[in-house]
Design goal:
Length: 168
């Protein structure tokens, strides 16, 4: 029996859910399904140019899992492009990540930084090292709100919502 799939973290929802060759009605095309986590893997690896290890941390998966996700995604995109299929973006066990908010105590500048990118060492505005999480951003229980009431029991622990709920 295979292991249950854990939620993969994504930063943004796609603006468009279907890509197809021009001039051909969508109903006449075969469709290739690209999951949301596969789209995120392509975004991080190819658009953002991140190394697999860093991208895997951002998505909260192992480097090997990230490699499998991006390989599958690239294969599907190549199939859609070369065979003239429609590429439909849908589904997958994902949860949205929200950026962390920081405040500089010296100049009161407020900015956001993605999760898993490390704590900022200085303010981007005044270069002061007196940087703290913004008060409204504290205590959210993890990168994607883990520990909030939307999860069963509201407990804070290392398993994602999918592992606890038994989703596959």
């Amino acid at each position: 029996m295979p292991r249950p799939v854990c939620c993969r973290r994504i930063s943004e929802m796609p603006g468009c859910r279907l890509f197809k060759p021009a001039g051909v009605p969508a109903v006449r095309l075969q469709r290739v399904a690209l999951s949301l986590d596969e789209l995120e893997a392509i975004r991080l690896a190819d658009r953002e140019g991140m190394y697999q290890e860093d991208a895997a941390l951002r998505m909260s998966v192992s480097r090997q899992t990230f490699g499998r996700i991006v390989e599958s995604a690239r294969r599907k995109v190549a199939l859609a492009l070369t065979a003239g299929h429609a590429l439909q973006i849908q589904g997958g066990e994902v949860e949205m990540c929200k950026d962390r908010s920081f405040t500089c105590s010296s100049c009161k500048h407020v900015w956001e930084a993605p999760h898993r990118t490390g704590r900022p060492t200085e303010c981007p505005s005044c270069k002061s090292g007196d940087v703290h999480r913004s008060p409204e951003d504290r205590g959210k229980g993890g990168a994607c709100g883990r520990g909030q009431s939307r999860h069963r029991g509201g407990s804070r622990h290392g398993q994602c919502c999918c592992q606890r709920s038994g989703k596959e």
